[in-house]
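Submission checklist for the structure archive. All mandatory fields must be present; incomplete records are returned to the submitter.

[x] Identifier: U2 small nuclear ribonucleoprotein A'-like
[x] Organism: Lipotes vexillifer
[x] Residue count: 194
[x] Sequence attached
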Amino acid sequence: MPLAGPAGRIGEGLDQALPYLTELILTNNSLVELGDLDPLASLKSLTYPSILRNPVTNKKHYRLYVTYKVPQVRVLDFQKVKLKERQEAEKMFKGKRGAQLAKDIARRSKTFNPGAGLPTDKKKGGPSPGDVEAIKNAIAGLPWWRRGNASTLAEVERLKGLLQSGQIPGRERRSGPTDDGEEDTEEDTVTNGS
């Protein structure tokens, strides 16, 4: 069954929907983390999975992890799973250290679950209070800005372009001459120490 777009995760409860599934081709999808493959473990008759051309196939211990999680697999990515591979997977993920290793590398991709709350630990986006003040001053045209006010359409469009590019009006660096043609220079004053 072809998908409309690349799959980023495998749904839970797949064993109930497809209990006798033996072959599963997930080639050219967006499976990223080894933990994204965990739902395959519930498919007790799965013997021929293909996960080629997914970012997860580049992860360390990918084949061993799949062999450990889906022990009945015979062929993975069109390559036979050898007895040596099975033994290595069993050895790697056996015991407390193995369980901890499996837990560490079985991280799952972050996906949105309908009905779940939104994460609240994100930083508030947008400009800082100082940036907001600089934007207000630029629009109001205070004298320190020395470029007049934003009363013309061209000036409003220029300010809009600056804001969209992430620059704060009045805080951009001025390199070169000012509006009246004079360059900003500082004169060194030498005081006579007599």
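[x] Structure attached
Curator remark: Residues 63 and 76 are 8 Å apart (CA to CA). The radius of gyration is 31 Å.
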